[in-house]
Structure prediction request, 112 residues.
Amino acid sequence: MSGSGGSGGDGGWPTEDVVDCAALIFETVVTSPQAGALTSLVVGELLRVALEADSGVRMIGLRSELANLLVGTLTTGNMAQLLRCLQEGVEFVAEVLSTDGRLIRVRVRPRT
Prediction:
């Protein structure tokens, strides 16, 4: 029974049941929001979801489309599946659903 649980061979990201990348949509909260980006975000804004590396640590970052500033990272939600889709070349965006100056809630979905 492959595809569930454990810490697969993809560098420590947990494996989960495979979902079609075109159907991968979920809501989550941005982790480690950057102070400079918080003040300029507006509800409805689209952020680019991208693989990032910081000191050799792999992460999924959110960048503003206009200024290419790092807004924060994603660490909750369907991370293993999102990582697989990004590695396959599927582009994703995160729509800002709400922000209160500290907490940013987004909906992650494939770019259309």
Remarks:
- The domain at 21-110 is CATH 3.30.70.2330 (Alpha-Beta Plaits).
- The helical segments are 35-38, 79-87.
